[in-house]
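Severity: low
Component: inverse-folding endpoint
Summary: output formatting inconsistent between runs
Steps to reproduce: submit the following structure tokens with default settings.
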């Protein structure tokens, strides 16, 4: 029997809350890192890994798995943490973030189970995602490729070359997710180099586009469930988010793009993330154990 919508959203929101706590846990383990962009992506990552993606955590190299590429690689604290929550890697990996010989570093590394591409230099994920989607078509595979980009990352011209290619080849098995948190490493995106009108740009490049609130789990689930938005075009989801979401002192500021984290900051962050349920940092939720068949 399909999971009731209310129960589904509650489950995913619980995973997102745990993910935000685990991001701070990882950042404390390393002494700091990229909090802002990790926290803005948390709700969408929870929805992807616990509802949308067709994956097998116990068989991470399953040929027909969906592919997820974190092009905004500086948000790897969130990706690694959600992979641990989903069962791709052990929970203890979170406490070895950026440690010696740890596969869980500041940026994604394909040595870590569940990571499809080593990223870090911005503007590379979408071009590779185009290749993955085109390769799937050539090989007759049914998997879907998802690429998450930052809005500041869209300053890189390679993204737009890839956008043209995806449209040209009508890659309806490709989705670009833009984490539009409006803040880059050194300031607000609009002040550094304006990218608006963002939706019109993607449409002009031949993509089918939708906009959502990237922190509204209902909107996130509905958007992912509607993919592909057009069976003759690649899909783009522009998700409006808040950098540093969930912790007031980190929200909507470039200061927390990357910053040191000590015990005092960790406790302040956790206090804001658990005001009602008083959940512990090690709250356990049921991991993904079977492949998830997402609607296509």
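Observed output (run 2 of 3):
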């Amino acid at each position: 029997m399909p999971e009731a919508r209310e129960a589904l959203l509650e489950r995913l929101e619980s995973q997102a809350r745990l993910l935000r706590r685990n991001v701070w846990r990882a950042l404390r383990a390393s002494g700091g890192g990229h909090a802002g962009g990790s926290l803005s992506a948390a709700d969408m990552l929870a929805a992807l890994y616990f509802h949308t993606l067709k994956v097998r955590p116990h068989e991470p190299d399953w040929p027909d798995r969906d592919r997820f590429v974190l092009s905004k690689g500086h948000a790897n604290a969130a990706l690694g943490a959600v992979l641990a929550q989903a069962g791709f890697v052990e929970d203890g990996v979170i406490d070895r973030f950026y440690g010696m010989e740890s596969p869980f570093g500041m940026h994604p590394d394909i040595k870590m189970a569940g990571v499809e591409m080593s990223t870090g230099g911005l503007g590379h994920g979408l071009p590779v995602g185009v290749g993955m989607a085109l390769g799937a078509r050539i090989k007759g595979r049914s998997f879907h490729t998802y690429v998450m980009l930052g809005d500041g990352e869209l300053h890189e011209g390679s993204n737009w070359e890839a956008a043209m290619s995806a449209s040209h080849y009508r890659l309806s098995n490709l989705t670009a997710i833009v984490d539009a948190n409006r803040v880059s490493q050194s300031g607000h995106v609009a002040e550094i180099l304006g990218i608006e009108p963002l939706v019109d740009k993607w449409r002009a490049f031949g993509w089918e586009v939708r906009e959502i609130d990237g922190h509204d789990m209902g909107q996130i689930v509905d958007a992912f469930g509607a993919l592909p938005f057009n069976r003759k075009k690649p899909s783009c989801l522009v998700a409006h988010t808040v950098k540093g979401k969930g912790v007031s002192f980190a929200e909507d500021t470039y200061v927390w793009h990357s910053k040191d984290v000590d015990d005092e900051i960790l406790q302040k962050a956790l206090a804001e993330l658990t005001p009602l349920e008083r959940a512990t940092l090690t709250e356990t939720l049921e991991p993904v154990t079977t492949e998830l068949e997402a609607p296509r």
